[in-house]
Amino acid sequence: MTGSTHAAAHLAQFNIGTLLHPLDDARLAPFVELLAPVNALADDTPGFVWRLMEDGADDATGLRPAGPDAIVNMSVWESLEALWDFTYRSGHLDVMRRRREFFQRHVEAHLVLWWVPAGHRPTVAEALDRLADLRANGPSPRAFTFVSSYTAAEAAAHLTTPAAAPADPAAPTDPAAPADPGRPAGDVAAV
Asked: Which residues contact 105 (CB under 8 A, 6 or more apart)?
């Protein structure tokens, strides 16, 4: 695991899980019951910066940018070590050990990490782009995993905030697009 010494950067993480059953199915009730405690644990973990939430909700389970059966999770952390500690050295690990009860097995990359400028809140579109890059090209300083990680210094060339495209009045409205260009879709609170 490689850490960051680049104070002007934070680590973004995005993952997708394909549900075995609809979220309101009784067989997923144990998972749904774990959402609030695990999210609260993340929020209180040293190094936590922000997590994606659907407007009017405490989590992102209502957002379905990767399909009707897939839920997403995205967060930003001060360092790779902070995310690692939350993921593998906290109560989150107990939930991960039960993932086969709730999610289909992955046949391709489902988690992507990348460095962002401190203060930047990545969009779902940005995260999907990074995941697509990882799937197509493998780990790189632009899109990587815990196993094949890069420091913020190594990724410095990729630490740019995506430029906003000029508005096209004829373009269809994207429901996942943020109403405020400075705020990611589904974000109701940034820590």
From this structure: none
